[in-house]
Amino acid sequence: MSAAGWTVRATGPRALVQDLGRPGLAHLGVGRSGAADRRAHRLGQRLLRNDETAASIEVTFGGFEAEVGADVLVAVTGAPAVVTVDGAPVGYAAPVRVPAGSVLAVGVPERGLRTYVSVRGGFAVDPVLGSRATDLLSGVGPPPLAEGDVLPIGAAPTDFPYLDVAPVPAPPDDVVLRVAPGPRLDWLADPGELWTEWTVSGRSDRVGLRLEGRTLRRVAERERDELPSEGVVRGSIQVPPGGEPVLFLADHPVTGGYPVAGVVLDADTDLAAQARPGQRVRLVRA
Amino acid sequence: MRVHRLGDVGILAEPGDLDRVLALDALVRARREAGDPGLVDVVDVVPAARTLMLSADAGADLSALAASVRALAAGPEPGAASDPERSGPGHDAGEPVRIEVRYDGDDLEDVARLAGLEPAQVVAAHTGTTWRAAFGGFAPGFFYLMPHEHGDPPGDGPTLPSLPRRDEPRTKVPAGAVGLAGEFSAVYPRASPGGWQLIGRTDAVMWDVDRDPPALLAPGALVRFVEVTS
To answer: At a CB cut-off of 8 Å and minimum separation 6, what does B40 contact?
Structure first.
């Protein structure tokens, strides 16, 4: 299998193996994790007729390069970036034939943050607890990719790809997220302040999108209260005492000790995962 | 019982106190295993100090799910001897898991002083208590352990008061460290930062992804600590 494997030459800021994660283990302290932008990951698998549980590589802000071990079909989805094979640009959101021995390189995306590289058969690193996802918070799953890593490729599925190209909208300039009221919205002095425009902080990561621009104050009688930790979901917006909200993404903790004021609708968490530091994010009522 | 919605993927039930949370958690798990049609959409069930969270895939009927959970919570009073549902796996935890501990933790003296006990009495109180894994959340395999029964026979021997966390959290607590904080005890499954008062250390492996199940404990499991000297 290693002859057909990919050898990582460069990772950029961060490159991780991801799939759809590990559902059902949260009570043991292991969150679901998985692709930050599940929609982009799923599209990659669909273009190649992989099972949607196959693993892709989540490339954060470009810079990923790998030598391809054997002729294979590849699809690039998520944040649109210039992707080259031996220096020649190839198509986006389309199955692309990549010959053995060539080098595939993912450039910095023009929009969005996370580009997904999928391969027919999937990246077949050893699963951990039923998934190949790298969970940066719990430390479960394969480690972040490093130069020199060899990634085995799984057996190609029997179905043959039938899509030439998938029409996908580019990530928008203005990210609009639908947010439902959360269980502890009444801890905020002015609950309506949540539904406004925020700026994505540079301290954001796969655990959560940190939002800046104003601070949300608590009602006076809750100012010194401590909330006993409680379960949170991907999309929960937690408000720490400092008042700047954290929107939980794929590697969120299973419980949180700060009040959850709102919850982003599930489909919109994929958009949130593509928001770049400095970008505006508008929260609207679900 | 209040039941909040978590967007379109979950509900957060407030059964009240921890006992009710754990009873409802055990009931939900048992009913899921039995194939209860009202719970088929459930992905994760997360007990915590006051709440029980159930997550589902987007598109699930959360109103129906909330109704199912309310019905379970409104069933036989948790703790009633005649309640047949109490035989759920999380609740009737069977024999306690025995965890061997060397009581040589750096905070043992401080804990003794705070508790108004001798260090040996702290050890006696810790080993003389049957603990119950209440809920996890801090790291894989980490569980908050609550005193379940004191003494052997019950009620005998010293007990531990609620203890503050350390003023300065440690940047690194080793794997296997046994700590106290508030009314809880816990074992650190892996090296991590931590603010608990450390009273000892165990070689027990709390978390191993290559083991099935990976966690030594689960919500509802009973634990007895046993002193060893080598």
So the answer is: none
Whether A23 is in a domain gets the answer yes
Which of B2, B6, B21 is most worth mutating to test chain A (most A CB atoms within 10 A of its CB)?
A: B6
Chain B nearest-CA distance from A135, in A, is: 11
What pLDDT is stored for residue B93 in this prediction? Answer: 60
CATH code (residue A189)? 2.40.100.10
Question: What is the predicted pLDDT for the residue at A1?
Answer: 44
In a domain, A167, yes or no: no
Collapsed DSSP state (helix, strand, coil) of residue A165: coil
List the single residue in A24, A138, A180 with the smallest CB-CB distance to B43. Answer: A24
| Best residue of A20, A28, A264 to probe chain B, by most B CBs closer than 10 Å | A28
CA distance A241 to A169: 37
Do A220 and A149 fall into the same domain?
Answer: no
Q: Is B32 on the interface with A (CB under 8 A)?
A: no
Position A158 confidence tier, pLDDT thresholds 50, 70, 90: confident
* Set of chain A residues whose Cβ sits within 8 Å of the Cβ of B190: 139
Angle (CA) B137-A269-A236 rounded to 5° is 40
| Judgement on whether residues A242 and A130 belong to the same structural domain of the protein | no
| Number of domains into which chain A is organized | 2
Q: Averaged over A176-187, what is the pLDDT?
A: 98
Domain containing A84 equals 2-153
Closest CA to B183 of B110, B129, B116: B129
pTM: 0.92
Confidence of residue B86 (pLDDT cuts 50, 70, 90): very low
